[in-house]
Amino acid sequence: MGDEFDEVLTRTAEIAVDWLDGLDRRPVGETVTLAELRERLGLPLPDEPVHPLTVIEELARAAEPGLVAIPSGRYFGFVIGGGLPAAVAADWLTTVWDQNAGLYACGPAASVAEEVAGEWLRDLFGFPAGSSYAFVPGCQTAHLTCLAAARHAMLRRAGWNVEEDGLAGAPRLRIVVSARRHATIDRALRLLGFGTSTLTVVPADGPGRMDVAALREVLADRVPAIVCAQAGEVNTGAFDDLTAIADLTEAAGAWLHIDGAFGLWVLASPALRHLAAGAERADSWALDAHKWLNVPYDSGIAFCAHPEPHRAAVSVTADYLVQGGEGDPRDPIDWTPGFSRRARGFPVYAALRSLGRRGLADLVQRCCAHARTFAEGLAGLRGCEVIGEVVINQVLFRFGDDATTDRVLRHVVDSGEAWLSGTTAGGRRAIRLSVCNWRTGEEDVRRTLAAFRQAVDASGTPPSRAGPPPSGRLPR
């Protein structure tokens, strides 16, 4: 059995290294159709065992054309990061070690790695001492965790125990969200029993910042409320005025939750943390490590300034579980909705230790600098309109009408030089470019701009009527 493992893991490492070494040469997008993928992978289930080495080699060969080069420095879609070398290696070890990170008893090292990484992050972000944390699959589950804690705390203040009595007959809670919130907020609230028709929606301005004056009116009657603010709007990267919102929520006795999936990472940068000023005053925060920390999927983190409602909302006990013990170990199951779970703390620990404070700050600032370079380069292309200012790492732009914008985007993606996604902004089609990968360098920016230049030439894009675009410089 040992020899079999040696052979298959050694070969798997070779395949993995070949994949990473080829990122600059291969197309960023897939090179196969859905029908072809189904044919390549859709083999009959064999009656007899197949040697593991055969399985892995044939899987890699069949899947490779259908892989998107997300780790590439020219993947700019969906605010997705790559994988730092230390984080990828730690993730491999996580799989090999195969620890069930639900209980300390099942994985003592996994539990302590989460504990250390959580405390490093809490200190890095400047969150209150004693804030609790949970390592979860992604920001969606981080919202679920944080908002479950908020629901518990706000209903408990009203004399209601939601874990025992449910929501039927519970006191009224006002759930306040921005018109430009991320879809994961609605989904988390729906799973917690708050239907979308019950939400109070606050208007947002052009870049997507919550209207503070409108929020003041919403909170004026002091109905118990949970307010969801945002650090980093998904299209523009804009930040809500978190200081003003914190002032209002504190005065109203409301719970403030911040969706900071990628935006809260600016707190790691001395040059950019002013954008999230006031974030430390929130009651809970949700973010992704598989974005700007460049940890492999999946990896999200929930923080809560109030450990008691956090634990009460998601913890579980059973007679057969081995919880607690000498030295008061941290059982992750007390803080996450997951029961059996992957040891996500190892890759986060490895990423943070490999970067250090300076390295993480440099990573964030470098991505933002590349975004500004992109905005300046795109602004020089015929017919291109850069929409708004570049706040952090998001660039939003379009070419003429909707059809032209989509045609230029399709041309770039089909070229294989870069991968980006379309979106809708102000009721019109646009292209969203997100710089979030540690691999992205000046050559990746040059190649991508050249691909757009070729796409514009190929599409016969007319000159823009929008006037000169903004410089894309970060606000000071």
Outline the fold blueprint.
Layout: H1 2-21, H2 34-41, H3 52-63, H4 85-97, H5 108-125, E1 132-136, H6 139-157, H7 162-165, E2 174-178, H8 183-191, E3 199-202, H9 212-219, E4 225-230, H10 242-252, E5 255-259, E6 284-288, E7 300-304, H11 307-314, H12 345-379, E8 384-386, E9 394-399, H13 402-415, E10 421-425, E11 428-434, H14 442-459
Parallel strand pairs: 2-3, 2-4, 4-5, 5-6
Antiparallel strand pairs: 1-7, 6-7, 8-9, 9-11, 10-11
Mass-distribution shape = globular
Low-confidence stretches: 464-476
Q: How many helix segments?
A: 14
The amount of helix comes to 40-55%
CATH superfamily of the largest domain: Type I PLP-dependent aspartate aminotransferase-like (Major domain)
CATH architecture of the largest domain: 3-Layer(aba) Sandwich
- Strand element count: 11
How many domain modules?
Answer: 3
Report the portion of residues in β strands. Answer: 5-15%
Cα Rg: 24 Å
Widest sheet: strand ordering? 1-7-6-5-4-2-3
The CATH topology of the largest domain is given as Aspartate Aminotransferase, domain 2
Tell me, rounded to a whole number, the average pLDDT: 94
Order of helices and strands: HHHHHEHHEHEHEHEEEHHEEHEEH
The CATH class designation of the largest domain is: Alpha Beta
Structural class: alpha/beta
Major β-sheet annotation:
7 strands, mixed
- Alpha-carbon distance between the termini? 60 Å
Account of the 3D structure:
- Strand 4, helix 10 (242-252) and strand 5 form a beta-alpha-beta unit.
- Helix 9 (212-219) runs parallel beside helix 10 (242-252).
- The protein has helices spanning 2-21, 34-41, 52-63, 85-97, 108-125, 139-157, 162-165, 183-191, 212-219, 242-252, 307-314, 345-379, 402-415, 442-459, and strands at residues 132-136, 174-178, 199-202, 225-230, 255-259, 284-288, 300-304, 384-386, 394-399, 421-425, 428-434.
- The radius of gyration is 24 Å and the shape is globular.
- Mean pLDDT is 94; it is low at 464-476.
- A 7-stranded mixed sheet has the order 1-7-6-5-4-2-3, sandwiched between helices. Strands 8-9-11-10 form a 4-stranded antiparallel sheet.
- The protein has 3 domains: 2-69; 89-352, 3-Layer(aba) Sandwich (Aspartate Aminotransferase, domain 2), CATH 3.40.640; 364-459, Aspartate Aminotransferase, domain 1 (Alpha-Beta Complex), CATH 3.90.1150.10.
- The protein is of the alpha/beta class and 476 residues long.
- Residues 465-476 have a biased composition (Pro residues).
- It comes from Actinoplanes sandaracinus.
- Keywords: Aminotransferase, Decarboxylase, Lyase, Pyridoxal phosphate, Transferase.
